[in-house]
């Protein structure tokens, strides 16, 4: 598509969990090719503590992520965007600002781990499971043959990624041993659909 870095914006309602994770994942997996951002339609103003905990365990510098409004990306000084992905269905159904750059868009909605009301162990596992789903989709995205796809074909590929439900098997070097989630916990988690059992962190 181009030799410059491609700007990618991830959106959700609160910009405290899912979109922050997606921004972090692409910042690492797309290093040198993509520049990632995240924002929310109704930002919480702070990143969920379980998100921070997870990212730190996965060796990200969590201090550089912040919860912010999507209005930051619609003004005259905003970066020109190439892709905008919603990672929650609520944000996908909202009236978005006009994005600079006429980006390609797709809904990659995943369930909200912050909606889990259970023990801390189960909540942490839910956040890790959401990270796995986002990692899977973003890995598919970064491995697309961009140079060989016209705009319509690329849009179709992006839409198909949004329907990908498979769980990623993270490479072992990306999951520190102290944080490897036991399969017995991870496989037993059922994350409620967006809109159920919402908490103040959504």
Secondary structure tally: strands: 4
**What percentage of the residues does DSSP assign to strands (E)?**
5-15%
Q: Order of strands across the widest beta sheet?
A: 2-1-3-4
Helix content: 25-40%
Low-confidence stretches: 182-202
Name the helix and strand elements from N-terminus to C-terminus, one letter apiece. Answer: EHEHEHEHHH
Through-space gap between termini: 35 Å
Q: Count helical runs.
A: 6
Main pleated sheet:
4 strands, parallel
| CA gyration radius, whole angstroms | 16 Å
How would you sum up the global shape? globular
Look at the helices and sheets and give the structural class.
Answer: alpha/beta
Average pLDDT works out at 83
Summarize it.
The protein is α/β, with parallel strands linked by helices. The protein is built from 6 helices and 4 strands.
How would you portray this structure in words?
Helix content is 32%, strand content 11%. It is an alpha/beta fold and 202 residues long. Helix 1 packs across helix 4. The protein is globular and about 45 Å long.
What features would you highlight for this structure?
single chain, 202 residues, alpha/beta, four-stranded parallel sheet, 4 strands, globular
Q: Helix and strand layout, with pairings?
A:
Layout lengths: L5 E7 L5 H12 L4 E7 L8 H9 L25 E4 L2 H4 L11 E4 L12 H23 L8 H12 L20 H4 L16
Parallel strand pairs: 1-2, 1-3, 3-4
